[in-house]
Amino acid sequence: MLKILSKSILFKGFNEDVIDNMISKINYKISHFSKGEIIALEGDDIRGIGIILDGTIEVQKGYPSGKVISVNRIGIGGIFGEVIIFSNLKHYPSNIISFTSSKVMFIPKEDILKLCSLSEGFLTRFMTLLSNKILMLNKKLKEVSYGTIREKLADFILDQYKSQENFKITLKQKRNEMAEHFGVTRPSLSRELIKMKEEGLIDFEKNVIIIKDLEKIEEVLY
């Protein structure tokens, strides 16, 4: 457990002895979940921040129509609940599901405050975590503002081009996972990719998208 915590943003840079000493001063709970098991439903009371010690969890948003969108998947060392734990919101805003069998460490609000008071380094890391999440949420809002699949794809391709610094973009997600991320069906996503290929904007093969006309892709958004 200490090795995993040392790779989490909240404890990264601390040696394992320091981490062991820190968590010995707080009340935390470790819970095990099987694949597909509900960790928390939208509206449930917040249990504290969760640190993934094993497996992967998925944050989902459900709608009255029955449609469910995958908002995010979080793997080992990842964290959830850090933004809402200090907000006026006392309940989870989304469903949290164990995507694989998983193990989660829950730290209550009071003990997060205690760790912040015990260690300036922990406080700094926690503030960094919150800042990163705000930036990610701003990015999500930008994605939601795009009304068409082509706009969503163009934004995604440009973002990956910047991060990978290559006209050949290696996809980490499968086609159906991309569709879920965009909130569209897989056939609709595939049709738009084919159209963009036919128009000379991109080419693609397996898990790689090849940018053929960067300027035209940028024009989709502006």
UniProtKB/TrEMBL annotation:
<keyword id="KW-0805">Transcription regulation</keyword>
<dbReference type="InterPro" id="IPR036390">
    <property type="entry name" value="WH_DNA-bd_sf"/>
</dbReference>
<dbReference type="InterPro" id="IPR014710">
    <property type="entry name" value="RmlC-like_jellyroll"/>
</dbReference>
<dbReference type="Pfam" id="PF00027">
    <property type="entry name" value="cNMP_binding"/>
</dbReference>
<feature type="domain" description="Cyclic nucleotide-binding">
    <location>
        <begin position="10"/>
        <end position="115"/>
    </location>
</feature>
<dbReference type="GO" id="GO:0003700">
    <property type="term" value="F:DNA-binding transcription factor activity"/>
</dbReference>
<keyword id="KW-0238">DNA-binding</keyword>
<dbReference type="GO" id="GO:0003677">
    <property type="term" value="F:DNA binding"/>
</dbReference>
<protein>
    <submittedName>
        <fullName>Cyclic nucleotide-binding protein</fullName>
    </submittedName>
</protein>
<feature type="domain" description="HTH crp-type">
    <location>
        <begin position="147"/>
        <end position="215"/>
    </location>
</feature>
<dbReference type="GO" id="GO:0005829">
    <property type="term" value="C:cytosol"/>
</dbReference>
<dbReference type="InterPro" id="IPR050397">
    <property type="entry name" value="Env_Response_Regulators"/>
</dbReference>
<keyword id="KW-0804">Transcription</keyword>
<dbReference type="InterPro" id="IPR012318">
    <property type="entry name" value="HTH_CRP"/>
</dbReference>
<dbReference type="InterPro" id="IPR000595">
    <property type="entry name" value="cNMP-bd_dom"/>
</dbReference>
<dbReference type="Pfam" id="PF13545">
    <property type="entry name" value="HTH_Crp_2"/>
</dbReference>
<dbReference type="InterPro" id="IPR018490">
    <property type="entry name" value="cNMP-bd_dom_sf"/>
</dbReference>
